[in-house]
Amino acid sequence: MINTEASTAITKIENGNIASPKGYIVGGLHCGLKRKRHDLAWLYSVVPAKAAAVYTTNVFQAAPLKVTQDSIQQNGFIQGVIVNSGNANACTGETGLKNAYIMREWYANKIGSTPEDVVVLSTGVIGEQLNMEKLNEGINRIEIAENDSSVENFEKAILTTDTFRKSACVQVEINGHIITIGGAAKGSGMIKPNMATMLGFITTDANISQEALQYCLKTVTNDSFNMITVDGDTSTNDTVVLLANGLAGNVEWTLQDEAAIKLFQSALKEVCQSLAKQIARDGEGATKLLEVEVKGAVIKEDAEKIAKSIVGSSLVKTAVYGCDANWGRIICAAGYSGATTIDPNNITVFIGPHKVVENGVPHPFSEEEATSYLANEKIQLTVDLNGGDKTATAWGCDLSYDYVRINASYRT
């Protein structure tokens, strides 16, 4: 197992984005799948890029996922990504699958590649067929050229109920080469930790084997996208795609190049965790980002189960929204998490800096100060099991009245 802790500094690039690594062009436009907002996005690598992906665990996988899996399995190289919002093309039968393949072919023709060099992603309403006439018209209007608004248009075109665009970018020097990793994501509702409850797009100019790329993405996903939740729902379309076109000029790294892979994986983790936290903060109707850290676990799996259980508890989320320091809900969620190594007489709980439980019983604290802390935009809950050295962190949001309002009228 490769250690993901890196000793070399990773630099966050202010205003960096998915097009920051060398050789990537992106864009977006409105083609009419949505009433007014951008709804068609594209990504193009000037040279074929090695590709890795992780997918939803929902058994009702949408047609675009099957097409994307088919493309990546062909030879592991991808040159283009085409994405629509406003329609998930999920639960649409053979017609939906045929349309996804047509969508792939149209964009491949546009960029002059073979269909197998293109992946297809969709997001939006489930159970409706794509308007192929509008989609075809939109793809015909695509211009593969950089302009001042191309990145912003891409980031806008992938959104559904999101309230803001999500991006991240870092650089790291590895063996004398500057490696850039950039990303964009969408996600606001139907968010549960079960692999990539979202659409995510990550690019890098590193030269890395497809096997190592897939390993890094899968491993990093477990500590980022798999550790967020908004509402406990896992969508039919969730996918994260990672492309590496090799234009940074390094000699190809394989899994045997442990030092280089370790640094690359750490940088990738920075991007994925940033995107994951942005998704959690943008939960439908959310007013606060909730971070739950569990430490002192005997096994990491128990720390993960408890963190996810607490951050996903509706009662914890509503207490955070209402600024109620009801620590009993935190204890309760830890207790039903399925973790097997909890000693109830050892547990310590903090709400921010305020210790509220020690050795499994109440610890004196100021209700007024705890309530004041819970009024902040970022809330941290810490649970110490005092039994080992394993830790895990999960991210989510509060649960407000607006979540019901948004989802009660999602299709209208």
UniProtKB/TrEMBL annotation:
GO terms for cellular component: cytoplasm. Its main location: cytoplasm. Pfam families: ArgJ. GO terms for molecular function: L-glutamate N-acetyltransferase activity; L-glutamate N-acetyltransferase activity, acting on acetyl-L-ornithine as donor. This is Arginine biosynthesis bifunctional protein ArgJ. Belongs to the ArgJ family. It comes from Sutcliffiella cohnii. Pathway: Amino-acid biosynthesis; L-arginine biosynthesis; N(2)-acetyl-L-ornithine from L-glutamate: step 1/4; Amino-acid biosynthesis; L-arginine biosynthesis; L-ornithine and N-acetyl-L-glutamate from L-glutamate and N(2)-acetyl-L-ornithine (cyclic): step 1/1. InterPro entries: Arg_biosynth_ArgJ, ArgJ-like_dom_sf, ArgJ_beta_C. It is found in: Cytoplasm. The keyword Cytoplasm applies. The lineage of its organism: Bacteria, Bacillati, Bacillota, Bacilli, Bacillales. SUPFAM superfamilies: DmpA/ArgJ-like. The record marks A196, T197 as: Cleavage. CDD domains: OAT. Keywords: Acyltransferase, Amino-acid biosynthesis, Arginine biosynthesis, Autocatalytic cleavage, Cytoplasm, Multifunctional enzyme, Transferase. Heterotetramer of two alpha and two beta chains. It comes from the Bacteria. The active site is at T197 (nucleophile). It catalyses: N(2)-acetyl-L-ornithine + L-glutamate = N-acetyl-L-glutamate + L-ornithine; L-glutamate + acetyl-CoA = N-acetyl-L-glutamate + CoA + H(+). The keyword Transit peptide does not apply.
